[in-house]
């Protein structure tokens, strides 16, 4: 049957699309109205006062007053202590403290009795003098001009001599990236001429170091003035507030610290705003700084968890933020929840989210626990990974309409995840009648415990899982296994199998966190457990993202050795061996060799039908080499599961990729033994990407046009199944062989 636009067949187009198209434009306009520009909240006006601002009052005078700049302080302190007047380039964001560091450096060079760390003493006659009196001259390039004529006149004005005969003349040029080329060349010559005497020092400050000429930068010591991290920012603001006797709520200070990006001047300006408002609550502070989005996020989360996507779109449309900002907030919510609540590892993802109380976080998470039938946040991990993967791989929304299209697609994903979760629960409630099905149309098998005959050994169903999952990886993700790992205990005496299994599981949890599975959607692992020589052993095939190549491999090896050393008290020493294959001509062979290695513990009495109807040894049918390594003789395990998978081969990942009637094809289930390892999966992957995008776009358009659930179901029912949809390549099942 042929396909038409959007992946719909003729019947669907005849009955569904005409009914929707007539109202589509008006409905989309109703969902995405043209909105006026977001109003800008005016900054609060301070009552007139003669008091000194906090930024001026608490400007550091010595290196001991500086927060969070150990490298800059160390270098400048050393230069002052050694009386070396080196020219410096300070770069960092506006308000980070570049000018402050330049002034401490200039005064320290000219101080009669600098302290042990090179700071000016603040008591000698030179420290008491003005900047110009001690020989510190400042030039604002944007305000006074960046031409060589202007710079040269400034350098020649008056006689530049320090009051201290043993001191230095320090020329400070702020916003130096605004220097014109001729001025940069003239300054370079001046700096080179002063190299021998070192009595004249040039300090440049800039927010854009890349715009300075390479020749000029090569003559300077480059120092980056970095933003303060969140915890340092909190301590800094809290300390100033206490010194200035400003009452504050710690939660409000944390919100302020996150919003001001670690720049001291901005932090102090923000503290002054809070001072003018009094001891305000966290909710009031959120409103004041225009980040009061918690209620919007709560309502949105509740709507999507109830599958009320119409209400969810209405909430998004009424949210007075740019489309890209809405996308950013929801993505940050997912990241913050994943690390802080699911993994329980602190992560600062967004100032608003970082300021949430435990109760507020629990309130946001509760609808998702209900949606996915989870009893604990950790149970949400596979679903969260898929949701984060969606936003990470989606394009940045350039406008409101594009943002709402992305959210509509996200809602479809949530509905499918919830539906597949329900199906999984139903399958778990009854015994599977299709576990040994040979139909290529069967849904991907779900990993679960296998009881009955053969329990404790690799069964035929386990072999089917390994071979199918090895085929699904290139079909669904376009990648191959590129590494192998064997974990096995070296025993002093007998070992508790349950303990050994837990150690293996813990190893993989920490390994996958090290690889950062959430940031590497192509990562996948497939493992088989065995009992060899009385000990618990696991064989694993993995796809590790190849970016970084040998460096990643070496890092993982080093990490594994360190991890192994931490397990010695458990009387287990893991054998860790990993090979990373990246050469395209060899990768498919390596992939299937790794998959077959996982099947090496299967018993010799497993048989299946060949294409001519005769029964044969399953090891021969799948092509298992006749070697001791590949045809092992393991002992019985006492507990399940024998086969486990994660990453791109997890149950959730496979179910997600199977949405839109796009389940993968199984040559093993079809007993097409000759096509198990001939590489057809990559052609299928390329075709799947096009067709999946086409079908997803059809649903997005229909949803935005106001389609009912029945309409959407009719559209999806019109799509051809995995075997029969049109393709750009000819599948092996279409040749009449092996089916």
From TrEMBL:
It comes from the Bacteria. InterPro entries: AAA+_ATPase (IPR003593), DNA_Rep/Repair_Clamp_Loader (IPR050238), P-loop_NTPase (IPR027417). Residues 84-228 form the AAA+ ATPase domain. Pfam families: DNA_pol3_delta2. SMART domains: AAA. One of its GO terms (biological process) is DNA-templated DNA replication. This is AAA+ ATPase domain-containing protein. It comes from Phreatobacter cathodiphilus.
């Amino acid at each position: 049957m042929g396909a038409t636009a959007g992946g719909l067949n003729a019947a669907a187009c005849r009955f569904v699309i005409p009914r929707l198209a007539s109202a589509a434009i008006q409905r989309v306009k109703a969902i995405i109205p043209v909105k006026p520009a977001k109003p800008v909240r005016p900054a609060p006006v301070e009552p007139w006062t003669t008091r000194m601002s906090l930024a001026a009052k608490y400007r550091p005078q010595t290196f001991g007053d500086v927060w969070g700049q150990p490298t800059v302080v160390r270098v400048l302190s050393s230069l002052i202590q050694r009386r070396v007047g080196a020219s410096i380039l300070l770069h960092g964001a506006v308000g980070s403290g570049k000018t402050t560091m330049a002034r401490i450096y200039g005064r320290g060079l000219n101080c009669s009795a600098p302290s042990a760390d090179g700071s000016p003493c603040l008591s000698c006659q030179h420290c008491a003098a003005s900047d110009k009196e001690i020989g510190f001259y400042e030039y604002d390039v944007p305000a006074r001009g960046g031409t060589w004529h202007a710079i040269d006149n400034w350098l020649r004005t008056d006689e530049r001599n320090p009051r201290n005969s043993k001191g230095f003349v320090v020329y400070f040029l702020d916003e130096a990236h605004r220097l014109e080329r001729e001025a940069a060349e003239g300054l370079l010559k001046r700096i080179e001429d002063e190299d021998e005497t070192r009595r004249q020092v040039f300090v440049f400050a800039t927010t854009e170091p890349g715009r300075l000429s390479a020749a000029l930068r090569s003559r300077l010591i480059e120092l980056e003035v970095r933003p303060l991290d969140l915890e340092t920012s909190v301590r800094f603001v809290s300390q100033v507030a206490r010194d200035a006797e400003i009452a504050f709520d710690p939660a409000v200070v944390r919100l302020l610290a996150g919003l001001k990006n670690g720049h001291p001047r901005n932090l102090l300006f923000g503290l002054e705003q809070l001072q003018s408002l009094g001891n305000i609550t966290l909710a009031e502070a959120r409103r004041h700084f225009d980040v009061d989005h918690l209620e919007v996020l709560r309502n949105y989360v509740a709507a999507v968890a109830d599958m009320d996507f119409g209400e969810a779109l209405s909430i998004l449309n009424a949210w007075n933020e740019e489309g890209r900002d809405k996308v950013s907030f929801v993505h940050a919510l997912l990241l913050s929840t994943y690390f802080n609540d699911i993994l329980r590892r602190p992560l600062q993802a967004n100032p608003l989210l970082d300021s949430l109380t435990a109760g507020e976080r629990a309130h946001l998470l509760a609808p998702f626990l209900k949606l996915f039938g989870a009893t604990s946040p950790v149970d949400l991990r596979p679903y969260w990974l898929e949701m984060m993967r969606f936003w990470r791989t989606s394009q940045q929304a350039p406008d409101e309409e594009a943002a709402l299209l992305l959210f509509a697609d996200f809602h479809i994903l949530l509905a499918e995840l919830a539906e597949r979760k329900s199906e999984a629960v139903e399958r778990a409630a009854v015994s599977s009648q299709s576990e040994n099905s040979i139909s290529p149309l069967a849904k991907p098998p779900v990993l679960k415990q296998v009881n009955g005959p053969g329990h404790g050994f690799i069964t035929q169903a386990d072999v089917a899982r390994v071979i199918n999952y090895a085929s699904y990886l290139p079909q669904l993700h376009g990648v191959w296994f590129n590494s192998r790992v064997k974990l096995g205990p070296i025993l002093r005496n007998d070992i508790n199998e349950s303990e050994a299994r837990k150690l293996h599981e813990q190893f993989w949890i920490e390994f996958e966190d090290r690889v950062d599975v959430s940031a590497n959607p192509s990562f996948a692992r497939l493992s088989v457990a065995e009992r060899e020589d009385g000990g618990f052993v696991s064989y694993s095939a993995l796809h590790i993202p190849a970016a970084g190549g040998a460096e990643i491999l070496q890092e993982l090896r080093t990490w594994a050795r360190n991890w192994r050393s931490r397990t010695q008290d458990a009387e287990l020493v893991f054998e860790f061996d990993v090979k990373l294959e990246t050469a395209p001509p060899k990768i498919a062979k390596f992939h299937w060799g790794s998959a077959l290695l996982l099947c090496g513990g299967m018993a010799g009495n497993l048989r299946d039908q060949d294409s001519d109807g005769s029964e044969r040894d399953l090891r021969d049918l799948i092509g298992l080499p006749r070697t001791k390594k590949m045809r092992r003789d393991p002992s019985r395990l006492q507990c399940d599961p024998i086969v486990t998978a994660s990453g791109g081969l997890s149950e959730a990942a496979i179910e997600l990729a199977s949405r839109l009637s796009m389940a993968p094809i199984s040559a093993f289930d079809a007993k097409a033994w000759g096509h198990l390892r001939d590489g057809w999966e990559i052609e299928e992957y390329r075709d799947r990407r096009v067709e999946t995008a086409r079908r997803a776009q059809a649903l997005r358009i229909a949803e935005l046009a106001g389609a009912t659930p029945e309409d959407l179901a009719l559209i999806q029912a019109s799509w051809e199944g995995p075997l029969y949809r049109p393709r750009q390549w000819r599948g092996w099942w279409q040749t009449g062989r092996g089916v």
